[in-house]
Amino acid sequence: MSTVTVVSVINYKGGVGKTTLTANLGAELAARGLRVLLIDLDPQASLTFSFYKPGDWERDLADEHTILQWFGSVLATEPTAPLWRYVLTPPLVNDAITQVGGGRLDLVASHLDLVDVDLDFAALLGGSRFQHGSPRFLDLHRALTDALNDPKFQEYDLVLLDCAPNFTMVTRTGIVASDHILIPAKADYLSTLGIDYLRRKVSELVRDFNRVTTDSAAQINPEFIGVVFNMVQYGNNGPIVASRNFIGLTGGLELPVFNQMIRENKTLFGPAGENGIPAVLVPNGNATIQYELQQLASELLARIRT
User: Fold this and answer.
1) Which of 6, 7, 9, 129 is the most exposed place for a label (fewest CB within 10 A)?
2) Rounded to the nearest 10 degrees, how much is the dihedral formed by the CA atoms of 206, 207, 208, 210?
3) What are the b/e assignments for 76-106, b being 16+ CB within 10 Å?
4) How far apart are CA 300 and CA 160, in angstroms?
5) Which residues face 101 on adjacent strands?
6) Which ranges constitute the DSSP H helices of 45-90?
7) Cβ neighbour number for residue 128 with a 10 Å cutoff
8) Orientation angle between helical segments 169-177 and 117-125, nearest 10 degrees
9) 5-305, what's its fold?
């Protein structure tokens, strides 16, 4: 069994800064000396484009070096290709990492056509409702889990999965493979709705998967490690009143909340991805934002290790 820690980053509500947090957490932890693997499971491929320009992606990666090709082998009749063949080491961010630490940040890139993969999953499972009686229910849901059990992935300290804001089969493979679930959220009404819906969908998946498997050691129980409030609007005395009110609503969901929040700063986060280096590692960047991201990374490590 894999010993690497796997964390899914997801919220049913889009536009909450999910990808930005994933990229920055991965970069910060790699700068501290950890070996971190990011896997982009979102068809929007925003995480991928945080490290590769779209033109470079289309020329060098799109046809042979993305998660789309790997899922194609999962769904084919021949043996599944090893996932490690699709691992990339983005050069710009790793150049920045080597200047401050001895870690490494790797990536499995996404593809815009990944949205069509669920149609193929549905065909193999006997319909769009992920039929429990399908003979391939377990092996398809476990595809990413089994891939990460390859000894080549034991060199990593942490795997972060950037999941799409939905519960398709691609997302489900990520949840099944995860030890923890991290939920980025904005301090608004729709984000809190997305959190509650996500929790219910994860509970259903865990129940159905564990009901089907006959191996108690293979049962899953991903832990909600916490909600991170992102893109928070600050006033002179901290988060504005409206933000504080919505943050308070999370208590009713009975989920842990990270102490560290990340304030909104479009001018910092916007161009950072275009340069291939997340905001937390940008030279002469906004010290306040970088400090918040660093503190969040420390809190994430502490929660994982407890």
Assistant:
1) 129
2) 80
3) eeeebbebbebbbebeebbebbeeebebbbb
4) 12
5) none
6) 54-56, 67-75
7) 13
8) 80
9) Rossmann fold (3.40.50)
Length of the chain counted residue by residue:
306
Cα 161 from Cα 182, distance rounded (Å): 10
How does pLDDT run across 87-125, given as a tens digit for each residue?
999 999 999 999 987 899 999 999 999 999 988 888 888
Q: Token pair for residue 281?
A: 């590692």
Look up tokens 């998967």; give the residue: 209
SS3 content of the chain, % helix, strand, coil (to 5): 50, 15, 35
Q: What are the phi and psi torsion angles at 227 (to 5°)? A: -100, 130
Give the position of tokens 């820690």.
5
The residues spanned by each domain of the chain are 5-305
**Residue 6 identity:** V
Residue 145, pLDDT > 80, answer yes
* DSSP-assigned letters across all residues of 89-128: --HHHHHHHHTT-S-EEEEE---GGGGGHHHHHHHHHTST
Amino acid at position 131, single letter: Q
Q: How confident is the model at residue 272 (pLDDT cuts 50, 70, 90)?
A: very low
Tens digit of each residue's pLDDT (9 = 90 or more) over 48-80: 999 999 999 999 999 999 999 999 999 987 789
Q: What is the pLDDT at residue 1?
A: 46
Three-state secondary-structure class, residue 10: coil
pLDDT of residue 255: 85
